Amino acid sequence: MSTKRSSILSIIIYFHEWFQLFTFTVPTLPFTQDRSVQLTLRSQALHISIPFTYRTSSSTSRFECLAEFAATGEISSLIVPFAGHIGERDGEGNTVLHISAKNSQSFALKLLLSAPLPRVTNGVLITALHCAVRAGDPDSVHYLLSHGSGTRVLDNHKNSVTNLVIHYLADAYNEAIFKEILETPGSSENELDALNEEGFSALHLAVRRLKLSLIELLLEAGASINAKDSAGRSPLFHAVNMNDVEIVQFLLGKGADPNVEDDSGETPLLLCMKTANYAIMGLLIDAGADPNRKNRNGNSLSDSDDATVQRIIAGERRSITDDISCLDYLTRLRLSKLMDENSKWQQLAAELGCSHMIELISICSDDSSPTMILLDQFEQMPEAKISRVRSALHTLREEESVKLIDDRFIY
Question: What does CATH list as the number for 59-187?
């Protein structure tokens, strides 16, 4: 008989009118070439030598796997001869899974995952899933999660995969990876509010990077809108500091506290006075921020001797402009989500007298919102007014879209 390394060998022996089954693992032997050996079984009543061939090479096995691939087209057959090496590591402790994930080789990773795998980390406690997230490869992330890779394994910075994904996405947003991780059983809402080494949660980072779509997803996933960073500042503070009217408006609409104080006694209103953003100042007051409320240092907005600040406190706001160029990005984004669905943007284009643009927009909108492109093109036309867009939407009975225009913030 012959056997390959680490084989399970079963032998039935007939001895004095009885049969005995012996099952055991053939050990790995220090041979570099195939060799004929004797297997000896010895006891008080038994002494038997069994000849067999110990095979060190797997040439036959490799051919059989190649033949199986040739016959079935099942490419996973090609990895079988190398399955024993998948758990081996390079000088940095990386397995071939880590290497595939780091280099965004999702096809190679999928092939390797067809073999039984150990769940291992490298020398700095990084799993292949950590690597796939850092590489921004949604396919690799999907394959690893589908094969049971855990999201709670911690790296050397004590980041779980979920936590790592969220903070990485705040820098390099990848919606596919974000959704894949959050929809994985075991992901925790608590991890959404965890602070990184700089003292920011994922929502703080998303606001600081001005990534509105990520902000929306984080809030939908359960991130706390009033979560504080290491300095006691909520995401609203960072939006005010970034002078981004649309994100301020969005956060307030989602319930952000306009009267919150940070650890130094700063409030969004007082911060607004420092940045001289009067549009945001008016927006905060309209949302309930109290200009007469004194902070822990005894300061309030009403103490300001700035005439513009006093007029805003008294209720003055900027006048409404009907030019389509004044339609803010947030409203455009929300309109696009509604009108892109079922190609309703084409009906809007027809109502706006832009039927001639439909074919070109359809060609150009593979990776973009056709509604966004339509609004950009409509802006170049004479008499491009917000009121015309509203009227067209009303004619189409798109009342939710009409409400978006009516409720938008004017600045």
Answer: 1.25.40.20
